[in-house]
Amino acid sequence: MARPKSDDKRNAILAAAARVIAEQGGSATTARIAKEARVAEGTLFTYFANKDDLLNQLYLDLKSGLRDVMLHGYPLDAPLRERAHHAWNAYVDWGISRPAERRAMARLTLSERITDASRKTGSDAFAPISAAIQEAAALGKLRDYPAPFVGAIMNSLAETTMDFVAHYPDDADRYRAAGFEAFWNAIAGG
């Protein structure tokens, strides 16, 4: 009889995969990931059918974790700028506190191994934020950019902000605020 799968082992494999993908990108091997997770490579394949399955599950796991952080305390009924500011700060704080996950997500986002279905599921997780952007654009409060483009602008400026905060932690508040202002001006037109 097969032993039941352990959430702890699955999570250890995903955490190891995030670290290894952050370091090595797409060239990371399942053997290296298994070694980092301190499991046999065969055990890895007990939890994930193949490397592509592992990468897609990692992508979704990272997106889910980011979503949980960004939507925690999300002020659903607040003015758009306040909602955007909340999402911004949560995203920047997440990236600063989880550098390996941040880097792994950036690499996976560019990977051709991530399926369209995984990308859609990952994007759908941020529905409240996307809905606010679409609603504001329809009301003429934001530039009429597609939500994925707004997300890409946010990501680019947040990455720059995270880099500056990491290099200049004494000026973290200044860079976080300046990054948000740049993002807001880009999507709201000033």
> How many helical elements?
10
Give the tally of structural domains.
1
CATH topology: Tetracycline Repressor, domain 2
Uncertain stretches: none
Shape: globular
Query: Mean of the pLDDT scores?
Result: 91
> What is the end-to-end distance?
64 Å
**What's the CATH first level?**
Mainly Alpha
CATH superfamily: Tetracycline Repressor, domain 2
The portion of residues assigned to helices is over 70%
Secondary-structure content class: mainly alpha
How many strands? Answer: 0
Estimate what percentage of residues fall within beta strands.
Answer: under 5%
Radius of gyration: 18 Å
- Report the sheet with the most strands, covering strand number, pairing sense and barrel closure: none
The H-and-E topology, N to C, reads as HHHHHHHHHH
Level-2 CATH architecture: Orthogonal Bundle
Domain HTH tetR-type: 7-66
InterPro entries: Homeodomain-like_sf, HTH-type_TetR-like_transc_reg, HTH_TetR
DNA-binding region: 29-48
GO molecular function, one term: DNA binding
Task: Summarize the SSE layout with pairings.
Blueprint: H1 7-24, H2 30-37, H3 41-47, H4 51-71, H5 80-97, H6 99-110, H7 116-124, H8 127-138, H9 147-167, H10 172-188
